[in-house]
Amino acid sequence: MKKNVFFKITINIVFILLVLVALVMIFNRPIKNQIINSYHPKVSRRVVLRAEQRQRQDTKRHRHNVSYNFKKVKSLDFETAVKARMASNQIEMVGQILVPKSGIHLPIGLGVSNTTLALAAGTMRPDQKMGTGNYPLAGHHMVNHYVLFGPLYFKTKVGDRIFLTDMKTIYQYQAYQRKFIAANRVDVVDQTRKPIVTLVTCDATGAGRLMIRGKLVNKYPLNTATPKLKRALLRPANN
To answer: Membrane-spanning regions, if any (predicted)?
Structure first.
């Protein structure tokens, strides 16, 4: 009698586990997107200054959290998203990117570690500075039109405004080029004389890249921005 009860309990547990696994597989993408969208960091000038200080001093934390090794970048699967969300405090935030027409509003983190790219746009060179030369940013292209750099692929067009800020100064760019390039075109990350922003994400196949470039058209203190723009940049990112 006891053996039969134990057997039935075991079967029920196994059945429930199989159902849970099946549900996770079915809803893998929506759950992953929700995990990413649940990240709403408050990027402040104080946070930026601390990250920049750790970068200058090359602290242990900076070396641990920041990587520019593109070969180690993984596709953004469910496991990577969960791990990144649990380790979001490792992102060394140095500002924000806002593309109003596309609905992009993300923190900018140093480097292209899997944690950073799972939740933010990542810088692609250790020496880049907003408003000076080429400022390249990488981001994941999601099937969802509203997650990470998904809107970049589906919505961003030539002529759109792109705002970067280090929470002190706003750098306003205007997109002038939308181009699909080979994945090995690392030259697009190189420094330039003219001040531009270069946004890079995967194409629909994942084998190539979409590049959008914008030229610097204006820069001004954050506290002098229009009320609408100021509200957008002072509220939590990814919002």
So the answer is: 6-27
The answer as to whether 135 is a domain residue is: yes
- Residue 178 to residue 191: CA distance in whole angstroms: 19
Is residue 31 in a domain?
yes
More confident residue, 1 or 166: 166
Structural domain of 196: 2-234
Rounded CA-CA distance 147/106 in Å is: 10
Which residues are tagged catalytic? 140, 202
Look at the chain and report how many structural domains it folds into: 1
Interatomic CA distance for residues 186 and 181, integer angstroms: 10
Task: Please report, for the chain, how many H helices and E strands are present, in that order.
Answer: 8, 8
Average of per-residue pLDDT across 110-130 = 96
The alpha-helical segments, DSSP class H, found in the chain are 2-26, 28-37, 45-57, 60-65, 78-86, 114-119, 150-154, 227-234
φ, ψ for residue 202 (rounded to 5)? -75, 155
Q: Domain of 113: which CATH number? A: 2.40.260.10
Confidence of residue 98 (pLDDT cuts 50, 70, 90): very high
Residue 239 counted as domain residue? no
The answer to the question of residue 61 being in a domain is yes
